[in-house]
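Progress note, sequence design subtask.
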């Protein structure tokens, strides 16, 4: 199979070898979008005219899609990763090729896959001591890993209670699995557990990391992301208002550290359990939580030398990475050495900038962004694809969501699709996963009270 892609609620499209990966935020495979513009308005083309080509049917086992977690894209197959399970749809006609229900509630997924295998996390039957968990108000930890053959939906292995029963004594945190070669490294409730990708056997375990200046013995691991087939990048963060955070480069197979550094952040009077995230790994780019309403994007060499800082004054925390299923899709995308960031102004407009990952210089600027919030969808054929989100209450916008495009080199934004007002898609498009394939927009609604996938031609 060729190179494939995947994305989760963290967002950021990634590409990883044989089958590929899902975040930041979304997948694009082999598209040529013909756009016609007349007097600044969209003109229908054979590629994108807004008509529904197909809607997926319910699987034979009766499992209905629910809240979206993310997606993977393979040759001829689109996989919806959902709270209720996994659904494999044929890209050409939407037929359900396979489904894999998860009776305990799916809560996370790996962005990366290897040799056709992806990893999802489901909630255990244990309960936190705390009264509220990290998503949907659940009190069940996201601590059970499942390996899945994405070509046929076969469950290869299941590892329950990765940290044992002691997980119930910890504070609720999100879990993140990262596939690197033949290993999957899971950040689960602040600790790291590495498993063999094909058998689920434990390879190594470790708790959080010591971070000088925090006053804590160890800080929990808030995020982990694969750099390549051998190394993962993990960030340990004791939370807002607790001082610096720590970054570790770790050999995924053996668990030994190959690099480490500390990141300072501005002091704040606030203290909260919101944790910094890894946006890119080469160079290392972090979304550093500075307070409850601010996030700073910073790039580093492996020795901790700070390359650049993107001022977070106009970035919402959930625009860098959603912290629960209800958050909006992320507004960042790493592609071809550029970090695309949407900066929101107070006058209900957004500007899209492309920052060079090596220097941090602002290399690109997209002009003419529509009123209301927008998010970066993908880069394809030297074109940047964005979606303007409708129904922004603060901007009093009631228009339907609409796709736009602009040259990667910068320039004017032009409409790519008509307003997406199809009743069977509707407002669920705003936070949906959007996948370009075979001259079609494949939409995976964020809340599937209806079809789990829709193709628009």
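Output:
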């Amino acid at each position: 199979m060729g190179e494939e892609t995947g994305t989760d609620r963290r967002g950021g499209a990634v590409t990883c070898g044989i089958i590929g990966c899902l975040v930041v935020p979304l997948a694009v495979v082999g598209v040529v979008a013909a756009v016609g513009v007349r007097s600044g308005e969209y003109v229908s083309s054979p590629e994108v005219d807004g008509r529904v080509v197909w809607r997926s049917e319910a699987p034979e086992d009766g499992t209905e899609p629910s809240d979206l977690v993310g997606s993977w894209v393979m040759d001829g197959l689109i996989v919806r990763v959902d709270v209720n399970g996994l659904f494999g749809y044929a890209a050409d006609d939407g037929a359900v090729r396979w489904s894999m229900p998860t009776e305990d509630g799916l809560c996370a997924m790996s962005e990366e896959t290897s040799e056709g295998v992806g990893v999802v996390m489901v909630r255990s039957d244990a309960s936190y001591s705390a009264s509220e968990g990290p998503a949907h108000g659940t009190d069940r930890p996201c601590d059970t890993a499942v390996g899945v053959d994405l070509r046929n939906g076969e469950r290869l292995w299941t590892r329950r209670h990765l940290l044992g029963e002691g997980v119930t004594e910890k504070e609720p945190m999100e879990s993140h699995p990262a596939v690197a070669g033949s290993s999957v490294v899971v950040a689960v409730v602040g600790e790291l557990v590495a498993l063999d990708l094909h058998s689920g056997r434990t390879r190594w375990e470790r708790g959080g990391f010591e971070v000088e200046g925090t006053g804590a013995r160890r800080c929990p691991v808030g995020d982990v992301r694969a750099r390549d087939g051998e190394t993962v990048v993990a960030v340990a963060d004791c939370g807002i208002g607790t001082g610096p955070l720590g970054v570790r480069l770790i050999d995924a197979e053996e668990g030994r550290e190959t690099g480490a550094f500390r990141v300072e952040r501005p002091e704040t009077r606030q203290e909260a359990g919101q944790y910094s995230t890894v946006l890119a790994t080469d160079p290392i780019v972090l979304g550093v939580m500075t307070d409850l309403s601010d996030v700073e994007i910073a790039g580093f060499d492996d020795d901790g030398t700070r390359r650049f800082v993107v001022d977070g004054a106009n970035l919402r925390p959930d625009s860098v990475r959603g912290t629960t299923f209800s958050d909006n899709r992320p507004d960042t995308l790493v592609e071809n050495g550029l970090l695309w960031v949407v900066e929101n102004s107070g006058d209900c407009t957004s500007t899209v900038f492309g920052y060079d990952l090596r220097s941090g210089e602002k290399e690109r600027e997209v002009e003419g962004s529509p009123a209301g919030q927008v998010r970066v969808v993908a880069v394809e054929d030297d074109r940047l694809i964005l979606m303007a989100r409708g129904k922004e209450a603060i901007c009093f916008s009631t228009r339907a969501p609409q796709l736009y495009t602009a040259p990667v080199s910068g320039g004017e934004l032009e409409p790519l699709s008509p307003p997406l007002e199809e009743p069977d898609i509707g407002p669920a498009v705003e936070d949906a996963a959007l996948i370009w394939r075979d001259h079609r927009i494949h939409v995976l609604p964020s809340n599937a009270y209806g079809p789990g996938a829709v193709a628009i031609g």
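Confidence is low (pLDDT under 50) at residues 11-46, 130-137, 316-330. Work on this subtask will continue into the next period as scheduled.
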